[in-house]
Fold each of these.
Amino acid sequence: MSTQLREQETRVIVVPNPRQRRRQGNGRAPRVATVLAWAYAALCTYPLLWLTLQSFRTDAEILGKPWGLPLRPTFDAYAAAFETTPLPQYFLNSLLVTVAVMLLVVACCAGAGYALSKLRFPGSDFVLLAFIGVLVLPAPILLLPVFLISSDLGIINTHIGLIGPYAAGGLPLGIFLMKTHFDAIPASYAEAAEIDRASSWQIFRMIMLPLIGPAAATVAVLAFMSSWNEYIYALVSIRSAELFTLPIGIADLSAKRFLSGYAPVFAAMVVTAVPVYIMFIAAQRSFIRSLTMGGAVKG
């Protein structure tokens, strides 16, 4: 009898968790989400794939069957694109503007984000709201004021006239992302450094900056993509052909397609799109970690 009582006492009754039941019952949900994610990725990749395939075809093939595959792949379109327009010069112009914008945006956003997060001062909340408010303004509204200011400063038809507005346009979102990541860093890090008599600059440079690498990579990628692909303001601001960036150069090449054809235009577009994809792939992990708030240290 005592043995039966011991067995009853040691018997464990396991009650399934309702959440586990729902997860087990919804096993198809992750599969459906995966399929939808792959379908969306294929939909986003298809334009670049189609563009690349068209760049290896002739104009006769493109006009005869726009959605077909290249029967005899050829690099003639790329040769024609480089012969018709100075693409290397346009590429260097875009690279110069974009790298300068990236450096300015990352540096300014890191400093402003740290100040708004860790160095509280009167009006800091209003400053943050002002930056966030700029995000809701449509870009065409700012086109005329920015152009008039640049004209008064005498920087129209210069690369500086592009770098300044491009960098200013990337600040609001970049500052918000940087501040969010600085907020996730425990205050005890700075307090421990202050006990060791570290200055504010040393705390920022030696402790805080290494912890926001993913956020800095995200801001750099966003600044790269926005400035590399920008067309409207560059078209208004730049007038000299030797200062053209790639978007304006491709538009100029497209206007001359009656001489060169469609295939060289597609080839030039591929040349323009490749650096963006390389930049995103190189910073993909940091980009995802930053958006999921996994890149900052949490207390």
Note: The mean pLDDT is 82.
Amino acid sequence: MGRLSGFVTIAFLAGLGIGLFVRGTGVAASQQNDPRASDLAAIEKLHKADEECTLTQDPACLTSLWSDDGINLGFPGPPVVGIKAMGEAYAKFRADHPDFQVLKYATDITKVQIVEGWAIEVGYTEATYKLAAKGDPVSVPRSEGMRLLKRQSDGSWKFALVGLK
């Protein structure tokens, strides 16, 4: 029994030493600094901002989600291209529909592919809104869509192209 107990103690101390060595060399830190994990965390931050901005319908907030050369296919008519045009389109929509209110907005991203500063995500969006204060709520059923994201120089992500099926 003494030999087994001595072996267990030595094995424990060896494991502890190896763990401290690995931690000291930065191997554990490099796993925490995995570029994909950092990108996914930054993309999740964009998703949360998207939800907040969509629910508030603040034109400046909505515009801030886009890259400078973003393309939005979600407005009626031709695509809205570029950050300046995006801001104008959101402001015009707000002016035309001052009582517009988003009651529910949820995205369910099922796939994310990240390649060289770009991310393609596929998923579903579901929403409920009221166009006028006294209007009835309109439900937009779960719709499949694709979004192209662009990594910014500060490591954050912004929408580059958004389209729905």
Note: The chain has a mean pLDDT of 85.
Amino acid sequence: MPGEAAARRRHLRRAMERFEKERPRNLLAEAGCHDFIIGLDHLKPEFNVGKIFRSADAFGAREIHLVGVGPFDPRPSMGSFRHVPARWFDSIEECLADLRAREYRIFALDPAGAESVYETELPAKSAFLLGHEEYGFSFDPAAEPDITTLSIPQYGHVQSLNVSIAASILMYEYTRRRYLGKTTPARSVASSE
């Protein structure tokens, strides 16, 4: 399929041209109105990264940390790459050190996470880490005692959400609580019948 390979190369070249054009504009981006940070640990740069910038802009993220993520096509961000500050890190250790120095509570999203996002306190300075779409995190969150693994409850047969959708759910839950004036979740009380 020589034609398909050539089309793929043209697509990648255009994506990199868009990135090079938008990157200087991102350097001027200002932090959003909320203190939360999204950390993307070695995500595939082709599609989800731009979509996560779009949601981060919508929900007022402070910034996005890109760990091991190279240039990506900003087109799916619909211009939001210009508005959400991006910080690049070569390793997850550098990213975690930065978050800890800034006194962020760190959460790692994991389908088998110890706590449900709906039942966990989300302080103003929350950092949400999302791993690679196929391979997960580049580190073991269980080996980091200050990192809480979160899950998003799911009720279907397949326990899998697209990473950009999962990021949007986290951002929505965080901002929903601020809108309601509550940072801690409301706990249901079982009746004593």
Note: Residues 97 and 103 are 10 Å apart (CA to CA).
Amino acid sequence: MAVRARSGITDDVVERTRRCEHVIIYGPPGAGKLTVAQVLAERYGMRLLDNHLSVDPALRLFEFGTPEFVDLVERMRVDLLQAAARAGLDVVATFVYAHVVDDDHLATLIAASADAGAHVTLVQLLPSNEALDVRVQAPSRVGTTKITDPDVLHRLQVEFDLRTPARSEDLVIDNTALPAADVAQLIADQVGLGPDAGATREDVGGECQAAE
């Protein structure tokens, strides 16, 4: 097996490297995005960038939906994704997507990761509306800035299309009755994640790079 003299990395080590993976999970409020993302982070060493990591700080300054709020949220998300990709970190991110309305924002997020070297996979979680009504009232949401009132959710569903996938090639999962661990496994299989995926890149220097 040949050795790369300048880097000190053998070919068999290089073969085990791959581009870092960025998984963007989207879906309506209460779809279980964060729960699934937490499983992915725990099992596969991914870094978690959940929706409210950017939303909550922005709400401290601006009203939800104002131009200033929207701009700040996008800039924070872009900076986080770019920094992660440049550092070679696998990331799972979550956000609520409204068809057409959020297309430009989503394209910006994809570009932030992809242009910095990450491979991006989009996953839509799409449980039934009845399941969403139950989940938004979960005790774990109390005291957060998340939607907890089914009536508010219903108004959003009337005003925005929260169920149409962003792209035809996205992985769409009906997780009405599917445990979060099973959903995470479906995503891992789609992306090609292994339990030691994060450790492999750290061992060789942590840069996003295509397998050679």
Note: The two ends are 14 Å apart (CA to CA).
